[in-house]
């Protein structure tokens, strides 16, 4: 059976108790709009279309990726393929014309404004999953979710998701309207959600879409490419952490090659084995990277293999700088 045939029978994962069934790997498009150095629109569109043709159904974007560039790109790629996919959109982050960050705005009026622009840029009538990118400290989550719930009633949005929020916020949001998934960083290098967040998702019947599976290329041996690459400022890629992590990554690469996998396939297979009910979202920018990621779906890791991987060492350093970590609701721990 060829891979193309096997995709027809590929298992799906349901997003939450009320959400859609999706292919077990999603495509994240942020890297196609310059967050990690130079990009090529033609190759990006080819990558999105190849992903859809190979069975990928979840396409993830944000209205602030490249200040609208990413949504316009995804919109071009979806022409003639819209019915085959669920489009997930993050909103709320504010940008300046120089690319600077201006905080978050998730007031109900802002939510309705953001969605109007996203629908237009994407060239779609409805967004499948709409989610605030971060918690707005000035707006109760109930107000934001209530505004998205109005958009669901009006037919502009199908499902509501969350991103990078902690257990209290998840519970409060879910009381207003069913949440289908939380988008959060999770990988061999970032296992924080296992302690408090994943158990709450399971309790409430909410799924997760997991980004940063390669820890921004760290786990695949990719290195920052100059000052325009924001990884150059992240703790895991700098100073003493960098040397320690290169050592762990070398062990992981050896393990992958001994088991007939690429490092990227190992990173995805690990996430799928640890969290089989959740969906890894990979930021492939090229068809070659996409094909490599899809190859991970044929690999299942046993309990013994997972234990052997854990024994290879731990990645040092936080996933973001201290200032950004402070603002992440998902990093606030629940009080008993």
From TrEMBL:
Family matches, as InterPro entries: Aldo-Keto_reductase, NAD(P)_OxRdtase_dom_sf, NADP_OxRdtase_dom
Keyword vocabulary terms for this entry: Oxidoreductase
A Pfam family per the record: Aldo_ket_red
Keyword Oxidoreductase among record annotations: yes
Residues in the signal sequence: none
Gene3D superfamilies from the UniProt entry: NADP-dependent oxidoreductase domain
Record has Oxidoreductase as a keyword: yes
Domain annotation NADP-dependent oxidoreductase: ranges: 24-312
Record protein name field: Aldo/keto reductase
Species per Swiss-Prot/TrEMBL record: Archangium lansingense
């Amino acid at each position: 059976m060829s891979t193309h045939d096997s995709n027809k029978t590929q298992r799906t994962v349901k997003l939450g108790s009320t959400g859609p069934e999706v292919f077990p790997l999603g495509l994240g498009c942020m890297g196609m709009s310059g967050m990690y150095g130079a990009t090529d629109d033609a190759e990006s569109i080819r990558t999105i279309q190849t992903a859809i043709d190979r069975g990928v159904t979840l396409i993830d974007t944000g209205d602030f990726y490249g200040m609208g560039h990413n949504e316009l790109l995804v919109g071009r790629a979806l022409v003639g393929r819209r019915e085959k996919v669920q489009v997930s959109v993050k909103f709320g982050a504010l940008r300046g014309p120089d690319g600077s960050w201006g905080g978050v705005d998730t007031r109900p009026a802002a939510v309705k404004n953001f969605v109007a622009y996203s629908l237009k840029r994407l060239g779609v009538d409805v967004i499948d999953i709409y989610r605030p990118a971060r918690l707005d400290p000035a707006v109760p989550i109930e107000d934001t979710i209530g505004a998205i719930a109005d958009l669901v009633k009006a037919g502009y949005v199908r499902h509501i998701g969350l991103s990078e929020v902690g257990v209290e916020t998840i519970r409060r949001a879910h009381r207003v309207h069913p949440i289908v998934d939380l988008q959060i960083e999770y990988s061999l290098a970032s296992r924080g959600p296992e302690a408090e967040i994943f158990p709450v998702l399971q309790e409430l019947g909410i799924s997760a879409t997991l980004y940063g599976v390669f820890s921004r290329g760290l786990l695949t041996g990719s290195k920052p490419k100059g000052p325009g690459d924001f990884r150059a400022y992240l703790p895991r890629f700098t100073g003493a952490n960098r040397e320690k992590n290169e050592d762990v990554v070398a062990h992981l690469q050896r393990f992958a090659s001994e088991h007939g996998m690429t490092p990227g396939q190992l990173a995805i297979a690990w996430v799928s084995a640890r969290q089989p009910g959740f969906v890894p979202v990979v930021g492939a920018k090229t068809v070659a990277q996409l094909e490599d990621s899809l190859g991970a779906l044929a690999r299942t890791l046993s309990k013994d293999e997972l234990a052997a991987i854990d024994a290879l060492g731990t990645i040092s350093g936080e996933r973001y700088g201290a200032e950004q970590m402070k603002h992440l609701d998902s990093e606030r721990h629940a009080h008993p």
